[in-house]
């Protein structure tokens, strides 16, 4: 049985999660916005053929992983002096307006900690699934994610929370 | 799904207390960190940030012809209305009391699950409805998709716009007009299942004794529409 749920539900339910993931992977900004858009466009294309019992969030996070890689490759290609930036409508709020210190702390994490944190804590993938995406053992991924979140707690405390 | 406990991950989104997963809550920091992690992680993507991206998704989905159904809601004197369109035209108008979620799920099943809130495609329909409710429009000029009107009901739905603004007809008269004078009850059920109420004016069909008859949007809505048209 294939998917019959209105796609809009999926955007509403999982849009913020996917945005967290791609921002953690790519840093908040146009690249993350692009990866989010490409993820949901690809999802929209595939939607009618998706088995109805799919874990939609995990599926979306895997798609987002691939799209983040595509965007990174595209960004390298675009980094030519002759290139012209495509016009694009204003989309998300700038990262400066939402927890800039926290994003700086995320960006400062070693890559494996950052990716493990992105896919596990933000994307909800299991450590085994995260390991399939980024390589390494599930145990190493678990440690990296835990180290990452601990580093974030050290460098960033939400307003009003005891440090 | 039968992983070790360390590998169990909340299926919920960040923001539930399940995010304080065991791997963190019991690690060497040794403090109750779940609630603080929630706050920490929640701040990484405020929900409002997705609105702009949603608009971009609407544009690109539209450009790529990916949508089975676009929809929006509008306010009206008879309550919130859901408007839905296919690439062919307006396919559904629904009253609040029908339950918009249920209506959208039915549309996904009937017409395809690529259903997206995309208001721009319905700007013209929304504008004409606004004019209608303001009393400055007496007929709709919109492309309609009759995909949800089949068989005899479809014949009735196609006929209904011939009952002009400010006029009414009885179920029997409509039955006669579509060539099945004995099918009075079938006309009643056709009106009750009109997928495009207001735009396709089933509210102009009354019982032969002049009493109201049923209405998908409720008797109050039917009365309000007839009063608007000074027909009651």
What does this structure look like?
The complex is a heterodimer of chains A (163) and B (232). Chain A folds into two domains: 1-93, RNA polymerase sigma factor, region 2, helix turn helix motif (Rna Polymerase Sigma Factor, Chain: A), CATH 1.10.1740; 99-163, Arc Repressor Mutant, subunit A. Helix content of chain A is 65%, strand content 0%. Chain A is built from seven helices and no strands. Chain A is an all-alpha fold and 163 residues long. Chain A starts with 6 loop residues before the first helix and ends in an 8-residue tail after the last helix. With 232 residues, chain B is an alpha/beta fold. Chain B folds into three domains: 5-45, no CATH class; 49-139, Double Stranded RNA Binding Domain, CATH 3.30.160; 149-232, Arc Repressor Mutant, subunit A (Orthogonal Bundle), CATH 1.10.10. In chain B, the strands form two sheets. A four-stranded mixed sheet of chain B has the order 3-2-1-4. In chain B, helix 6 crosses helix 8 (184-192) and helix 7 (171-177) packs across helix 8 (184-192). Chain B is elongated. Chain B starts with 21 loop residues before the first helix and ends with a helix. The model of chain B is unreliable at 1-33 (pLDDT under 50). The interface between A and B is large, with 58 and 55 residues.
């Amino acid at each position: 049985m294939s998917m019959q749920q209105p796609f809009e539900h999926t955007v509403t339910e999982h849009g913020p999660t996917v945005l967290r993931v791609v921002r953690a992977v790519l840093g908040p900004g146009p690249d993350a916005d692009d990866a989010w858009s490409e993820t949901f466009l690809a999802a929209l294309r595939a939607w009618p053929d998706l088995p109805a019992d799919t874990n939609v969030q995990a599926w979306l996070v895997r798609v987002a992983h691939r799209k983040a890689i595509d965007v990174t490759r595209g960004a390298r290609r675009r980094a030519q002096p002759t290139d012209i930036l495509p016009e694009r409508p204003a989309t998300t709020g700038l990262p400066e307006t939402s927890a800039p210190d926290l994003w700086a702390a995320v960006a400062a994490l070693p890559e494996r900690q950052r990716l493990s944190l992105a896919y596990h804590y933000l994307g909800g993938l299991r450590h085994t699934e995260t390991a399939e995406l980024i390589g390494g053992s599930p145990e190493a991924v678990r440690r990296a994610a835990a180290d990452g979140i601990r580093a974030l707690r050290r460098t960033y405390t939400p307003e009003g929370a005891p440090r | 799904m039968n992983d070790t406990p360390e590998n169990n991950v909340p299926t919920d989104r960040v923001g539930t207390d399940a995010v304080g997963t065991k791997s963190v809550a019991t690690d060497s920091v040794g403090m109750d960190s779940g609630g603080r992690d929630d706050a920490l992680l929640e701040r990484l993507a405020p929900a409002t940030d997705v609105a702009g991206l949603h608009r971009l998704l609407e544009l690109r989905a539209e450009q790529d012809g990916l949508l089975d159904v676009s929809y929006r809601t509008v306010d009206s004197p008879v309550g919130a209305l859901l408007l839905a369109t296919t690439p062919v035209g307006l396919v559904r108008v629904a009253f609040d009391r029908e339950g918009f979620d249920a209506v959208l799920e039915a549309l996904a099943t009937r017409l395809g699950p690529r259903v997206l809130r995309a208001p721009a495609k319905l700007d013209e329909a929304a504008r004409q409805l606004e004019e209608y409710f303001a009393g400055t429009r007496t007929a709709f000029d919109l492309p309609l998709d009759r995909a949800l009107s089949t068989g005899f009901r479809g014949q009735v739905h196609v006929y209904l716009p011939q009952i002009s603004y400010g006029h009414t007809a009885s179920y029997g008269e409509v039955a006669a007009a579509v060539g099945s004078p004995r099918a009075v009850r079938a006309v009643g059920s056709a009106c009750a299942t009109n997928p495009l109420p207001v735009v396709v004016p089933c509210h102009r069909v009354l019982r032969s004794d002049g009493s109201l008859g049923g209405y998908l949007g409720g008797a109050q809505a039917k009365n309000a529409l007839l009063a608007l048209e000074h027909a009651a």
